[in-house]
Amino acid sequence: MRIFILLIAIFSLTVPAHSQTIEVEGARKNIRTSGDIGAVLLPVAGLTAVLIQKDWEGLKQGALAGITTVGITYGLKYLIKKDRPDHSDRHSFPSMHTATSFAAAAFIQRRYGWKWGLPAYVLSTYVGWSRVYGKKHDCWDVLAGAAIGAGCSYLFTRPFTKKHNLTLVPMTDHKYYGFHASMTF
């Protein structure tokens, strides 16, 4: 019985080296795929929010942010020609997936607030992580993509609250402190 247990222990130590490699590669592919879905889902979510709100000014701002993000990212990819970690091509820097997802997240946050922006940023962060874990980018590629995407959205997107003249004013009567808020509908 002890020999049988020893053989199982030896077999489990030697065989999984190959099967673990296959499992890790399968996991990488699955995570890369889920990151791809997230990179598409976020811009679709931003467009859906625009259409539901009938926010045509937001549509212009989001389009400008998106077009600028894609243009800068493609320009840098073909100018810099950095090799990917998996050596599949020389278009690693910056990460397009991360740039577009962060552009969408920043648009959603700037236009509609943190209630919707925070989950969008969490998903964008996952997209960036999936690109590093999937061996398509290193951290610098992802950080540059995030900065480009968020920066373009911050450049072009104005908060939705400006359309409704939201005003917050600090107030005090030397005993109580607070804010006065007003908004037009």
Provide a descriptive summary of the structure in words.
The chain has 185 residues and is mainly α. The chain has one domain. Helices cover 73% and strands 6% of the residues. The chain has helices spanning 2-14, 16-53, 56-80, 96-112, 114-133, 139-156, 160-163; strands at residues 167-172, 177-182. Helix 3 (56-80) runs antiparallel to helix 6. The longest helix has 38 residues, at 16-53.
What's the quick description here?
By secondary structure, the protein is mainly alpha-helical. It has helices at about 1-15, 15-55, 55-80, 95-110, 115-135, 140-155, 160-165, and strands at about 165-170, 175-180.
Features:
two-stranded antiparallel ribbon; 2 strands; 185 residues; disordered N terminus; 7 helices; single chain; elongated; mainly alpha
Cα gyration radius (Å): 23 Å
In total, the number of domains comes to 1
- Quaternary structure: single chain
Unreliable segments of 5+ consecutive residues: 1-19
Approximate strand percentage: 5-15%
What is the typical, i.e. mean, pLDDT?
Answer: 81
Main sheet attributes: strand count, strand direction, barrel closure: 2 strands, antiparallel
Q: Helix/strand/pairing class, anyone?
A: mainly alpha
H/E element order = HHHHHHHEE
Strand order of the largest sheet: 1-2
User: Termini distance?
Assistant: 79 Å
Strand tally, please? 2
Please give the count of helices.
7
Envelope shape: elongated
Q: What percent of residues adopt helix (DSSP H or I)?
A: over 70%
